[in-house]
Amino acid sequence: xxxxxxxxxxxxxxxxxxxxxxxxxxxxxxxxxxxxxxxxxxxxxxxxxxxxxxxxxxxxxxxxxxxxxxxxxxxxxxxxxxxxxxxxxxxxxxxxxxxxxxxxxxxxxxxxxxxxxxxxxxxxxxxxxxxxxxxxxxxxxxxxxxxxxxxxxxxxxxxxxxxxxxxxxxxxxxxxxxxxxxxxxxxxxxxxxxxxxxxxxxxxxxxxxxxxxxxxxxxxxxxxxxxxxxxxxxxxxxxxxxxxxxxxxxxxxxxxxxxxxxxxxxxxxxxxxxxxxxxxxxxxxxxxxxxxxxxxxxxxx
Length: 301
Ligand code: CP
What we know:
Blueprint: H1 12-26, E1 38-43, H2 49-60, E2 64-69, H3 82-89, E3 95-100, H4 105-113, E4 117-122, H5 128-142, E5 149-153, H6 160-169, E6 175-179, H7 188-196, E7 200-204, E8 216-219, H8 230-236, E9 255-257, H9 278-300
Parallel strand pairs: 1-2, 1-3, 3-4, 5-6, 5-8, 6-7, 8-9
Helix pairs in contact: 1-5, 1-9, 2-9, 3-4, 5-6, 5-9
The site of phosphoric acid mono(formamide)ester has 10 residues, from helix 2.
């Protein structure tokens, strides 16, 4: 692979290759080093986990980073185009990570950059490194990824982490429960794809009725920034709040994942239960991103 732009570009074998590399890195069975490499990190949307874990991953690989947070203070403020910015910064670095609000912009950057490009989230479209760390988290907690029953809760319409996860898990024979407000259903193109692949899914309005059947509950935030009409956001923002008392009848292997940040969709009381895995999941982001950077840099050599 030259770039990591969308889970839809990847085969099952390529996905497993990233997960296996992450496992070896976490267990120190593999210690890749890139002391002569520089990673440029261009984030045009806010981030804590993705940005800092990519930076941590590159530093653990003995590489260096240069960072751009928004266009403020750069020549984009003077009218320089996105394309010229990418072409220029790619001359200063060996690998580039981009987060953008504009769907498709990171794929475009990959076409003109001349170095490996990683999509760290493009609008409501894709977040492939998140999906890989989600699969890695499922593999670690469930002793495998095949045949899992997974509920995905919250903003299924605009959630790029959700879209990438559905695409990625579709290689591993899951059964899905999709739980969302009616206006934030998983888009039809994903449901059609699941129908075509004969993957079982159920759409529900309530969390509690499905919890006993689940291996994984993947909770997401209702994303205020994706709503044009803020009144529509106000109507649905508190649709789901997971509380400790809702977890009385769960399977032994049950785990709660969340790409984070959370607002109030998981009560902090859940954090101390044995089912909360979301901060471990965020840590797994470092191992998976070390694997992604290593595989792409090795491929570029
Ligand atoms: N999961 C995720 O993308 O988090 P950040 O927005 O903090 O990077």
